[in-house]
Amino acid sequence: MKFLIHTYGCQMNVRDSEAVGALLVAAGHERVEKEEDAELVVVNSCTVRDKAEQKAIGKSGNLIALKKYGKKKMVGLMGCAVKRMGADVFKALPDLDFAVGPRRFGMIPRLVERCLAGEKRILEIPDEDEVPEGLSAHSVSGFQAFVTILLGCDNRCSYCIVPDVRGHEYSRPAREVVAEVEVLAKHGVKEVCLLGQSVLRYGVRNPAWDENDPPSPGGYTEPFPRLLEALSKVEGLERIRFTSAHPKGCTDELVRAYAEFPKVCRHLHLPVQSGSDRLLKEMGRRYTREEYLTAVKRLRDFDPEFALTTDIIVGYPGETEEDFEATRSLMEEAGFDNSFIFKYSPRPGTRSAKLEDDVTKEEKERRDQVLLSDQEARGQARNNLLVGTVREILVEGPSLRNAQRWSGRDSGNRIVVFEPDGNPPEKGSFVKIEILEAHPQILLGRRV
Ligand code: 5AD
Ligand code: SF4
Description:
Largest sheet: 6 strands, parallel
Helix content: 25-40%
Number of helices: 13
Radius of gyration: 22 Å
Mean pLDDT: 97
Strand content: 15-25%
CATH topology of the largest domain: pyruvate-formate lyase- activating enzyme
Bound molecules: 5'-deoxyadenosine, iron/sulfur cluster
Shape: globular
């Protein structure tokens, strides 16, 4: 069948969709670019906030409506919303062909066969500890790839539905990860991004290394830095990124790995959520404002240009003006290069859903806007410091906003735009750019 996958949500979903695409192609189906050409559409859903879930469900509903006119043959839903909704998904979408939760995406080619044979409304809900099939299926054509190293999450933050839908933590064996990255590098991948809800907890719940693995040449004892050490030896691979991280894992060994392995990129997405100790405690984040700022200092003492990004929730139940101001001041102290601000959305079954969602919509909106405009100024100030520096970037291709210009990213994941001057470099190559102009979200420069 001609198929297309629509993806909502985080990079983990992007990766799962990619694996599903590869598995469908391997099963003889054909990927198409345009939605109108697809007979089968799979929607990969997110449920981290209510709005995100609504989007995926709405999109699926629209696609299902097209089945009546013979414009679609099959519509499937995968991902986090399926696990949250369970059988209720068919109340919302009665003519959905199949629904499959996060750790069972590898079954999709078989579900498609079953639907073709006449089955309807198939529901596959994974267990908390299931190890998925198809984790190493890839269909990359470019020079960048995502690699899942850690599934699930055991952090249990009060507001977060992710542990309920993605299950318990499971660290893939290091050998399996290294083998996967070696294959990718042989196929021309230069940059990998290692994925997990909390990658720095790699190897904590279940050992990722076994006694037969050779010891770490650098004497690393923590499983994640040791994985970075192993991956930095992979030939052809030039850059290693990872996301997302919990501040607890920002250890001295991690900083040593940044220093010793030049392939490890100097950017960390380190969600802080709030700057108020009172709220951090309520959220169950297990660190204080000061501990967070100590982690930041460790990274910036090592490299002042180290890029730090974060996630913030505004309007958590009971968030006072004072709590909010504490978040503002923490953001300023940390000097984030970028931040993602989310308005609190109560999720069924989470601890905070029992609290009254008492910050009004208008107030959440106001706090969101304040933090966005703070970040705009801060992003500008951070980027101003880079004017005059020469940055090595991995070329991604013509810039999205202006195809006359090309863009790439530096080690800090900053977007760097330059004029190709009639002689564009190859996509996936490294070039050096002198920064001439700074904006809050991008840097402009010329080739040197
Ligand atoms: N409401 C608002 N934002 C949330 N996030 C997670 N759960 C919620 C929620 N219930 C945000 C956090 C997390 C990011 C992926 O989504 O900031 O880091
Ligand atoms: Fe949610 Fe916390 Fe896990 Fe992040 S670490 S996904 S915020 S429970």
